[in-house]
Design a protein that fits this description.
By secondary structure, the chain is mainly alpha-helical. The protein is 50% helix and 11% strand. It has a two-stranded antiparallel sheet with strand order 1-2.
Length: 114
């Protein structure tokens, strides 16, 4: 069973308005946390499939510049998702986060009032 304190903050695998990071406060057993687990699993699975597709395109001499730019853009988007998942999991494991508050994926640890 997960023994996280009730004031634990989890970085969610999606962004809110204006691209700002979203967080949930709690022990990780609520509906939002379960949905976040599903979204993270989907994002990681899609990233894996995209890597296979990118490998195929790079190996194909017939791939056009437009196709390669498209797959590069998709890889960049997917890498941002995977990075957010990794940060979220690292934060929950207590790994210090050196990202600045202005970082595109948001601040690391969020301090709650005592």
């Amino acid at each position: 069973m997960n023994e996280q304190p009730l004031d634990t903050v989890r970085l969610l695998p999606w962004v809110g308005t204006a691209g700002r990071p979203c967080y949930v406060v709690g022990n990780g057993e609520g509906k939002v946390s379960r949905e976040a687990d599903k979204v993270e699993a989907m994002q990681l699975g899609m990233a894996y499939e995209l890597l296979d597709h990118a490998d195929d395109m790079v190996a194909d001499d017939g791939s056009t510049a437009v196709q390669l730019r498209h797959v590069a853009a998709a890889l960049a988007h997917s890498l941002r998702d995977v990075h957010r998942v990794a940060r979220s999991r690292g934060l929950r494991l207590g790994i210090p986060d050196a990202f600045e508050p202005g970082h595109p994926s948001g601040p690391g640890m969020v301090r709650l009032r005592p």
